[in-house]
Amino acid sequence: MTETGTKDVRAAGRSGAVDREALVRAALDEIVTNYREANLSSVARSYQVSLAYVSECVRAETGRTYKELLQKHRLELAARLLRRSDMTIQQIIAQVGYENTSYFYRLFRAHYGQSPREYRLSKLNRIPDGRK
User: Fold this and answer.
1) I want to staple 104 with a disulfide (CB 3.0 to 4.6 A). Which of 18, 27, 69, 98 is the partner?
2) pLDDT tens, 84-99?
């Protein structure tokens, strides 16, 4: 690896050398701009590197896997929608990119310590300054 963050990855792709920081930025941008259908494979294809290499770079730079980062983004968006919209929970689940309702509920409870419904109700019962 050079000082600029470039690593020779001839075995991973045809491009010769890839800027790891740009690769990780592209992977993170994919999460933000395409969170419903985010796909690390598309980033790997566009940089002509292997999926394993992109995944390794993301984990090395962020300390988390791509899947963990995507889940965190989706759950934070779902929480924001629960607080600020009148969408049903089912609509929110679909909006943030989950197809399996029970899987979403399991992830949400693990992340926030309560169900989406409980979360919404707890946020609706608060006055803006944080008092109940």
Assistant:
1) 98
2) 999 999 999 999 999 9
